[in-house]
Amino acid sequence: MESVHRFNKRSKGFTLIELLIVMIILGLLAALVGPKLFKKVGTSKQKAAKAQISLFESALDAYRLDVGKYPSTEEGLEALRKNPGYKTWDGPYLPKEIPKDPWGRDYIYKCPGEHGDYDIYSLGADGKEGGEGENADIVNWK
User: What pTM was computed for the model?
Assistant: First the structure.
């Protein structure tokens, strides 16, 4: 016996109007939710920069305990990964290579610093000193 399946033409898929309604609803949701999510991206990058600077501070303190001083500006943060020539150096003090800031630029390190023993900072999203919001500098002294 042969079973015959009969399908109604209307039951095979969606109509163009149904698809358009779904596309409009998705577009409205993206327009409402998208801007709020993009605001979170900027603040998350700032939080990531603060966390990385905090990691540098811990590594610098361990370096100072071993060597007796912080790396100079010339030695830079690379001294946390490669021995600049000290017998008491017991690194590497960071498990991986020196990361870039969340905007893809190098962190700025100065020792002695203007605000303490050393200064570490990122220039924020705009790459210029100062700024507000996402463009604000992320620093270790605040």
Answer: 0.71
